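User: I'm preparing a small set of examples for a lab meeting where we compare how different chains pack in three dimensions. I only have the primary sequence for this one, and I'd like the structure in token form so I can line it up with the others. Please keep the answer compact; I'll paste it straight into my notes.
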Amino acid sequence: MVLPPSEEAVAPFVIHDLGIEKGEHLKRICQAWKKADAVVQRLKEQGGKYLKIAGHAEKFASQHKYTIHLRSKSMESKVEALEQQNQDLRGEVGQLREQMAQMFQILTQTNAAVTALANQSAVGYAQVNYASRPPPRNVRDPPYGMLHGWNTKSPANEEQEQQNAVNNRPVFNASSGAGPTEGAGPNTKEDPEPNTRHRGMLPPL
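Assistant: Understood. Below is the structure token output for the 205-residue chain.
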């Protein structure tokens, strides 16, 4: 605190003609010094507040700058990690596409081979197997309901028909004088009693 000047210090500057000897001028000087001291004290207080606020602001600014720097570093590291994951995913997607293309090519080749084998089997069955083998059970030719292949001509069927015709042709018995008998083949025996069996019948002309 600044003290006002004493009377001894002010005495050499007192002008007696103006009536300052009564202390009016000294009183004013003391009041001025007191006001100046109050102003200085107020400036100190306000300056301290301002300095304190400035210190807090500077500290906050430095801390905020440090926090922003840390956040920016963290964001940069996260962005780098995401970019790396993106590159890895792109590589995996490319590999999957290549594998899918290879699988599609293999499936296409397999399908073509299976189709060719199926066509060959169908043609071979139609040309060889189906012609020589009987059809499935309960298969009949429309529209008469006859068994499948009943009118199909084959060497075996023709030979069987010829044999049946030879065995079933009528045979004349000259000794008995009887007419032709059906069902008598080349090994048919003569009737031992033709007269008693065909009694009353005239011999053929």
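A couple of notes for your slides: Residues 7-115 form one domain. Confidence is low (pLDDT under 50) at residues 182-186.

User: Perfect, thanks.
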